[in-house]
Amino acid sequence: MCKLNLPMMNMGDTNSETITAGNPIRNATPDRNPKIAVLAAGFCRIWTFRLGLKGGGALIRMIQRLFPGIQRFNLNYPELGCCNISFLDFFWIRQVTLGVGEEKALLENISSLVGTSPVVWDVGANSGYLAAEILLRLKPARLDLFEPNSAHRQTLESLAALDSRVRVHMIGLSDRSGNRILHIPRDEDGGSTCASLETSVVAGCNSLNYEEITLECGDDLVATGVAPPPDLLIIDVEGHEAEVVKGLETTIRIARPLIALEHLFISDATLERILPEGYQLFTVCDKTCQLIEGISRQRGHNTLMIPTGETVLQNI
Predict the structure, then answer these.
(1) Which residue has the higher pLDDT, 154 or 212?
(2) Is residue 204 part of a domain?
(3) 26, 128, 186, 286 - which has most CB atoms within 10 Å?
(4) What is the DSSP string of the chain?
(5) 309 vs 51: CA distance, rounded Å
(6) Residues 151 and 229 in one domain
(7) How far is residue 159's CA from residue 165's CA, in Å, rounded to a whole number?
(8) 279 to each of 23, 169, 269, 306, how far by Cα in Å?
C-alpha cells in the first residue's frame, strides 16, 4: 500500500502543499491544498502513531466543520498524477492521514491470483480509494467503475482523467434494469461510504438522504458493448451482491472471472446460493491475508470465488 511520509512543518509557512502518496509532502503548482489541510493530516499522524491515540478521523471531521474549504483534497500518486478526492470520506481520510487502505488483504490476494493486464470491474466503486490501488497494483488493461451515488462523481472522474484505462459508469448493477432509491446515511452516521439499496442495511442510521438511481444488468452491458467481460469482478454493494451476480450469470459462465465480494450484509446461505457452478469459495483473512476455504466471518469480511481447475487455485 502507499505509505505517506508527513514531515513536521513550520506553522508560519502559508504556502499551499500537495500530499504525495509514497513521497514526502512537496510544493505543487497548480494542484495545491490549503495549509490547514496538510497540517490536519500531519497532526492526525502524530495523534495516531506517536501518541497511540484513537479518533484521528474524528479530528479531521471536526476541523472540516471549522474550515469547510478543506472538504476536497489533492492526493498525488507519483505513478498516476494528482487525484482530487473527498476529504469527507472515511476511507480517503485513512489513506491521506495513515497511508493505508481498508482492503490490504484483498488487494494482496487478487494481485497474486489475477493474470497480467486484466479487465477489471469494480462494482460499488464508492469514492475510488480501491480503484486507485487497482491501477497501481494490477496494471489493468481496463478498469470499469460502477457507482450510482452522485456524491462520488467528482472523485471518480478525477481518477478517470488521470488514466485512459478507467471508465466511470454512474449507475448501479442488479438483476434487472430500472430505477430505485439509494439510501445514503448522512455524515454523522458514516457518510456516503455505506449507501445501500437495502433498507435493512441502513435501518440503524439516525438520518438518511435519498437518491433515485439507474440500475442495469451486467450481462446487458456486455452484450451491448458498453463494457468488456471482466477477468476480475469486485462487488461491494452493501447487501445487494446477490442481485449483481444474478445479473451477470451469462458473463460469469462464459468469461469465468475471479470474483471478490464483501459478505458483511449477506447470509451464508446466500453466499452458497450465488456461488457459480464450477467455482470454489474462500474467505480472505483480514489479519494474515491467507485464503481460508469456506466461510469464516470471524476471520474476514471478503469472499473470493475462484474457478475450479484454474492454475491459481492449484497454487493456493
Answers:
(1) 212
(2) no
(3) 128
(4) ----------TT----BBEETTS--B--SSS-B-HHHHHHHHHHHIIIIIS--S-HHHHHHHHHHH-GGGSEEEEEETTTEEEEEETTSHHHHHHHHHS--S-HHHHHHHHHHS-SS-EEEEET-TTSHHHHHHHHHH--SEEEEE---GGGHHHHHHHHHH-TTEEEE-SEEESS-EEEEEEEE-GGGTGGGG-BS-TTTTTT-S-EEEEEEEEEEHHHHHHTTSSPPPSEEEE--TT-HHHHHHTTHHHHHHH--EEEEE-TTS-HHHHHHHSPTTEEEEEEPTTT--EEES--TTT-SEEEEEETT-HHHHT-
(5) 50
(6) yes
(7) 10
(8) 41, 28, 16, 5
Same domain as 130, residue 50: no
Residue 114 pLDDT greater than 50, yes or no: yes
162 and 109 assigned to the same domain: yes
Per-residue confidence (pLDDT) for residue 94, from 0 to 100: 73
* Domain with 77 in it: 19-98
Give yes or no: residues 278 and 148 share one domain. yes
Domain assignment of residue 262, yes or no: yes
Cell numbers standing for residue 249? 450469470
Q: What is the pLDDT of residues 237-267, one digit of tens each?
A: 999 999 999 999 999 999 999 999 999 999 9
One domain, residues 155 and 263: yes
Same domain, 113 and 88: no
For residue 122, the model assigns a pLDDT of 98
Is 11 a domain residue? Answer: no
Task: Tell me the pLDDT tens digit for each residue of 182-240.
Answer: 999 875 434 456 789 998 888 888 778 899 999 999 999 999 999 999 999 999 999 99
Q: Which of 58, 78, 98 is the last residue of a domain?
A: 98
> Closest Cα partner for 235 from 252, 214, 220?
252
Residues in the chain: 316
Q: Do 239 and 90 share a structural domain?
A: no
Cell 470454489 belongs to residue:
280
Query: What nine digits make up the cell of 94?
Result: 485513512
